[in-house]
Design a protein that fits this description.
With about 230 residues, this protein is of the alpha+beta class. Helix content is about 40%, strand content about 40%. The chain has 4 helices and 7 strands; from the N terminus they run αββαββαβαββ. Strand 3 and strand 4 form a beta hairpin.
């Protein structure tokens, strides 16, 4: 009985090793032949959308009166904007804050902002000049529209992947391997954020403001294909 148990154990271990050893050998060889690559493609894309942020602000002693004045000014600005279909308007944060002098409350400040967005540079520039009669310009910047960005990213992703494939073939040939297989790949896109082209200071007098000179500029869009290949 003892001999049979020993023989059975030896046979079982032998069968188990037949299943385990090739897996270990295969994994070791696969890891040994893997190479990491990262290829990028980039292009400068012209901005096509202007975004302006303006605000109405009042300071005084009675918060309710200040709020009414700010609301009236913002409503006026919205009505002016709605007359131009090519411009989109969006109201932003509304704040009512106490003002202090020597640690004692000395009044209130009420402020509300709105954002204008358009691809019609001429129309939005003229509107900004008009709205500055009663509002202050906080910032103006250019950006790339969603449609133009997606088209650029798709084109650059294709270029990055094709360059990745070409580089993988070159590496395989250099290492004297017939071919390769793709183990994994990650695709990333990025773009440098547009910087404000104009910023007004709150201390500036309204009558000194005019329609700012604007330049569209460009942004760099980049697509990166990073992955691992296995030489065959």
């Amino acid at each position: 009985m003892t001999h049979r148990l020993v023989l059975f154990s030896i046979v079982s271990l032998s069968i188990l090793s037949l299943f385990i050893n090739p897996v270990f050998a295969g994994d070791s060889e696969s890891i040994y032949n893997q190479i990491n690559l990262s290829i990028s493609a980039s292009d400068e894309i012209e901005n096509d959308t202007l975004v302006a942020q303006l605000y109405a602000q009042k300071e005084g002693q009675i918060a309710s009166q200040l709020a009414a004045q700010v609301n009236q000014t913002i409503e006026w600005a919205i009505q002016q904007t709605k007359q131009i279909p090519s411009i989109t308007v969006q109201t932003l944060d509304y704040h009512t804050r106490p003002l202090y002098r020597k640690q004692v409350q000395d009044g209130w400040r009420v402020k509300q902002s709105l954002r204008l967005t358009s691809q019609d540079t001429v129309a939005i520039s003229q509107l900004i000049g008009k709205l500055q009669q009663r509002l202050m310009v906080e910032s103006i910047r250019y950006q790339i529209s969603h449609k133009r960005r997606v088209n650029a990213e798709n084109r650059l992703i294709t270029q990055a992947i094709n360059a990745f494939k070409a580089r993988a073939k070159l590496i395989s040939k250099t290492w004297e391997h017939a071919n390769y297989r793709l183990v994994k790949m990650d695709i990333h896109t990025s773009g440098r954020a547009a910087q404000p082209r104009f910023r007004a200071q709150a201390s500036m007098e309204v009558n000194t403001l005019s329609t700012p000179a604007l330049e569209t500029g460009k942004q760099t869009i980049q697509a990166t294909a990073s992955g691992t290949i296995e030489l065959l």
